[in-house]
Amino acid sequence: MGKLRFASVWMGGCSGCHMSFLDLDEWLFDLAEAVEVVYSPVADIKTFPENVDVTLVEGAIANQDHLELIHTIRKNSRLVVSFGDCAVTGNVTAMRNPLGGADVVLDRAYQDAQLLRPQVPHDDGIVPPLIDRVLPVHAVIPVDLYIPGCPPPAKRIRAVLQALIEGKPPEMIGREMLKFG
Amino acid sequence: MPRTLTINGQEISARSDQTILEAARDARIPIPVLCHLDGLTDVGACRMCLVEVAGSNKLLPACTTRVQEGMEVRTDTERLRAYRRQIIELLFAERNHVCAVCVANGHCELQNLGIEVGMEHVRYDYLFPKLGVDLSHERFGMDHNRCILCTRCVRACDQLEGAHTIDVMGRGAKSLIIHDMNVPWGESITCTSCGKCVMACPTGALFKQGSTVAEMVHDAEKLAFLKAARERKVWNV
Ligand code: SF4
Ligand code: SF4
Ligand code: SF4
Fold first, then answer.
1. Nearest CB to A148: which of B98, B120, B126?
2. Of all atoms in ligand 3, which is nearest to the CA of residue B200?
3. Cα gap B75→B81, rounded to integer Å
């Protein structure tokens, strides 16, 4: 078997899942042997490629850009993995949902808290518009695997990637693999 | 009169006044529970302990079903496992459980059960209700976002403290835990600030003020000790 075509994406999350990914330390060298990184926030690749084997998605679907990209990801990936609690549950990113639509938080951030010329950024194509309700990834597209955790500990990420490299389904059982938070 | 029954094919004997849960525990057969707490009466609210009983097409809660002679009980079938996971997922979907920023993270019975039933995601739409946090009590806090309406606090306050400060208002998913006639906790005239409700709570809904994320340890076992000590009038250990 050739190298796995591997992608990771950063949606509505804090990048903590990717930081935890970097915590894999020297195992990253082994990973680099086994996969070809075709898209990632740590690589300068502009468009999401075709024929991806595994895509880790960090973060919830929170704005228009996420919403568009996630469909491309699904179309072009064999396995889509919800990577971390924001992708799996909405988590902290979704804490704005009980407050109401997007305007409530935009007003709070850009109007209420500003003294000088408060205004919500509105120029087209500069800031992607927030969608009214933050959604976990599987609420938008079918997801194949879930790695809970905020962030998922490096050991958990490694166990999943190791299994995928060996072509096996990872065993998501017990506290080590399943604890949220 | 002792009763003889089988649980998962294993023959056991139990006292006639025992529930299936008690009999199973005596025989070291685990049945998951959430609204049950040793030392409090059982109400069969959470349905985690549902079991199959031969001859009944209904699933029965082990905590409120008495043993009977010749009963054949199953506690761990495919169907029960599927329902248990479903119950846990629905509890997560109903309120706002953000474990990452929860005082009870790592010390939470709901979280533990999620792990036990193999929940890696929730299949249902999250409701994201708008709920409040009551910090009016000088020592404790109540976060309705984390409440699963198990009523363990209601029973602890009533049955162990005798204050009956806490009750439930409303119906179904819209139910809310209230203090006295729905006043802020800190204004309750019946609360003795004993903290038994906080000990009883399985989640991050009731907490000691000042606990940071992952710090809130509940001492639920102490309540069973208190009850037993009171009944047997032994206080020195
Ligand atoms: S109560 Fe338990 S399940 Fe809910 S957010 Fe807190 S830790 Fe998570
Ligand atoms: S602190 Fe004690 S008296 Fe007050 S509500 Fe809780 S259990 Fe009841
Ligand atoms: S506050 Fe805690 S103990 Fe009381 S009903 Fe809610 S979850 Fe149960």
1. B120
2. 3
3. 9
